[in-house]
Write a structure and sequence with these properties.
Length: 345
């Protein structure tokens, strides 16, 4: 059984990838500093899989710990999530983001090179495209100057990977540029668990519906879209998790590959109001929301072309927007039933 190290494996996307890796016959190993996740996630993973996986608690900048991880067991591949990801916070704390996201990747690559690990998946983002001139965005769509230090760390991360591999290191890597992950595991054992005020739309919707937030503000109602609100490509986290496992499988069989980038999305976009409507229809809850001013730095509309992921990974999305909203609501209700305060401050 192959060992796959998942950095940030207790996070939102990472935890779902751990479950999917197990389903596909891999042995996931989790590394997380729990600065943006909870230990309770590990219990949720165990409830789904029936297994407790090895967990290393610590920072990816800790080279001593990293070497302990890689020397204590053979690591066959790495899926690298561990990074800070709040756009607004990155504007306020750019050095914090560059240290964690850029230096963290360098730290991982140094150990990967030392221990001759050959396969790596990098968690990238559609933020590398900025506001594209045409839609849908393909992998060849020109990257524009990032709107935030967070976005810039993803652009720099891809460049570091490409430069490192071009130097002749025996490593194959894929940067998955994904769009807007939503939803939760259908069991409601794991899901998005933001600490403090959510940065993402869907947890704000579910927390508002649950009475934990007074109302939801939609940022901007005058964009050039069908209802005036921003358009995003919302992908169910279970589909996204599956794409990571398919990517690892692809790296293991594609011997000529060095470095590649692949969009991971649904191939279509939804407005914010369409997401709200989908939530109301699936949950039967009426949401208290209002239209506010535009938020600086927000892209008007973006969604992916997904031909490449279908062709190379033999992958495409299976879950609908409505299923994602239903799973998100089930997850929020589970948190409420557990009297959890993890998701609110």
């Amino acid at each position: 059984m192959k060992n796959i190290l998942v950095t940030g494996g207790a996070g939102y996307i990472g935890s779902h990838v751990v479950v999917k890796l197990h389903e596909h016959g891999y042995n996931p190993i989790i590394m997380d500093d729990f600065s943006n996740s909870r230990h309770s996630v590990l219990e949720g993973i165990k409830n789904i899989t029936g297994k407790s996986f090895k967990v290393y608690e610590g920072d990816i900048l800790d080279q001593k710990l990293l070497k302990e991880v890689f020397s204590s067991q053979k690591i066959d591949g790495v899926i690298h999530f561990a990074a800070k990801k709040a756009v607004g916070e990155s504007v306020d704390k750019p050095l914090y983001y560059y240290k964690n996201n850029v230096s963290g990747l360098v730290s991982i690559l140094e150990v990967v090179q030392e221990y001759k690990v050959k396969n790596l998946i990098f968690s990238s983002s559609c933020t590398v495209y900025g506001q594209p001139d045409s839609l849908p965005v393909t992998e060849e769509t020109p990257k524009k100057p990032a709107n935030s230090p967070y976005g810039n760390t993803k652009q720099i991360g891809e460049e570091i990977l490409e430069d490192t591999i071009n130097s002749g290191i025996d490593l194959k890597a894929i940067a998955l540029r994904y769009f807007n992950p939503i939803g939760a595991h259908p069991s409601a054992e794991i899901g998005e668990l933001p600490l403090g005020v959510p940065n993402n739309l869907v947890p704000f919707i579910t927390q508002t519906a649950a009475g934990l937030r007074e109302s939801l503000t939609v940022f901007g109602g005058d964009y050039n879209t069908q209802d005036g609100t921003c358009i995003r490509d919302y992908i169910h986290v279970m589909d996204l998790a599956d794409a990571h496992v398919r990517s690892i499988e692809y790296l293991e069989t594609e011997y000529d590959l060095n470095f590649d980038v692949i969009n991971v999305g649904t191939g279509s976009g939804n407005t914010v109001l369409e997401v709200i409507k989908a939530f109301e229809e699936t949950s039967k809850e009426k949401l208290n929301f209002k239209i506010g001013p535009r938020r600086p730095g927000d892209v008007e509309k973006i969604y992916a072309q997904v031909d490449k992921s279908k062709r190379l990974l033999k992958w495409q999305t299976q879950y609908s927007l409505e299923q994602a909203m239903s799973d998100s609501w089930k997850w929020q209700q589970k948190l409420a039933n557990n009297s959890s305060t993890d998701s609110v401050s």
